[in-house]
Amino acid sequence: MALTAVKGFNDILPDESGRWQYIEQTARRVFELNGFGEIRVPVMEKTELFCRSIGDATDIVEKEMYTFVDKGENSVTLRPEGTAGVMRAFIEHKMYAQDPIAKLYYMGPMFRYERPQKGRYRQFHQIGAEITGVNDPLADAQVLNMLTSFFREIGLTEPTLQINSLGCPECRPAYRAALRSFLEERIGHLCDDCKRRLVTNPLRALDCKVPGCVEATTLAPSVLEHLCGGCDDHFSSVRRYLDLSATPYSINSRMVRGLDYYTRTTFEMVTGLLGSQSAVAAGGRYDGLISQLGGPAIPGIGFAMGLERVALLLGSQEFATQPDLFIATMGGGERDVAFRLMDGLLKSGVRVEMDYEGKSLKSQMRRADKLKARYSVVIGENEVASGRASIKRMADGFQEEAALTITGIQLLVKSVKQ
Ligand code: ATP
Ligand code: MG
């Protein structure tokens, strides 16, 4: 039987990787402009890290993690998200001793055992960013503005920003209690998952997609009406900063996140174009996380976006890079000249392709079309003898003569490229 990839794990072929690189490069450019530096952490961590950070009663820890025992009898887990590992590294290397304010970004594969479907895979990729050490709502606004800029820079008008506040350990217990008693009165309408969540994590019921639960929770108490003074002020300031920078957003008081470490500001970039995979990026503040993992009491805020979902939104735009020039030869005798020319042009930064197989001129030209070469040149005996050839612009067939030298062709191709 032929070998295939593991279910939910995808290959990204060269046709598609141009689009991925475009997303990654745009993220690097926008994040680095905002003063973020890249951090690279392992894809596998001790299982305990995720239980302690994401929370035992979350979908991720309860049922989505790739956890196994290694040959040394240690329980290890393929990372289901990036923040926990980044904060583990921040603490382990005492990065805070130098400066509690760290602006970090990462990109790479994450792993969750979920039901694969469009926009939802078992190995998927996130690009994320975190700011530690700033309580001020200004950091929240910068993170949100940076995320908004990223989507503008890659040329998407979807998704749109939704924000909420989940309060803090001071005000959330009262909200949780209010929500729990509201849900208890409607327990008959809730799905089995939500009945269980009622005890472990009632806020998750607001995120449930089962129609009965959606209906039963329509009039649920709003978290925003239960914020303490500090959280309320913080949330107003975030909104004021967003207004100051003319960043469009809407408030969604039903937004809860699937990770326990969030406090205060939470947000999602949401699209209507990907079915139930509506969140393209998501994040929030996690003021208690670093101390919960054994570090000092340093706040943080960050987000992660799903690269596959961003790629789906970008659609079938052309991102593959095309050759600048295709060199075809009339016969075998010109192949040495063509090869030397290709080698010299490649060394000087012109992207060149030529025929590898000694095919007929017709099939060489078909290949030039297939590769979407910008220009082509045919080298035969006359061209070799005169040292000149006509270079054809493939888009419209316009021909221009150039010296058959590296600089001659380079000048022509470069001048039109710009
Ligand atoms: P969802 O509600 O779609 O399950 P989530 O709340 O679990 O998303 P987060 O943990 O906040 O997602 O992760 C941030 C982003 O990572 C998501 O907005 C999404 O774009 C992406 N993402 C999460 N899980 C997957 C997955 N299984 N496959 C592809 N992308 C994913
Ligand atoms: Mg999920």
Q: What characteristics describe this protein?
A:
418 residues, alpha+beta, BirA Bifunctional Protein, domain 2, Rossmann fold, 3 domains, 8-stranded mixed β-sheet, 5-stranded mixed β-sheet, 16 helices, 39% helix, 21% strand, elongated, binds adenosine-5'-triphosphate, binds magnesium ion
Q: Kindly report the average pLDDT value.
A: 93
Oligomer: single chain
Q: What would you say the CATH architecture of the largest domain is? A: 2-Layer Sandwich
Classify the beta-strand content into a percent band: 15-25%
Small-molecule components bound? adenosine-5'-triphosphate, magnesium ion
Helix/strand-derived category reads alpha+beta
Cα end-to-end separation: 51 Å
Name of the CATH homologous superfamily of the largest domain:
Bira Bifunctional Protein, Domain 2
Q: Strand order, biggest sheet?
A: 1-5-6-11-10-9-7-8
Give me the number of helical elements: 16
Please summarize the sheet with the most strands.
Answer: 8 strands, mixed
Q: What is the count of distinct domains?
A: 3
In which range does the helix fraction lie? 25-40%
Give me the count of strands. Answer: 16
CATH class of the largest domain: Alpha Beta
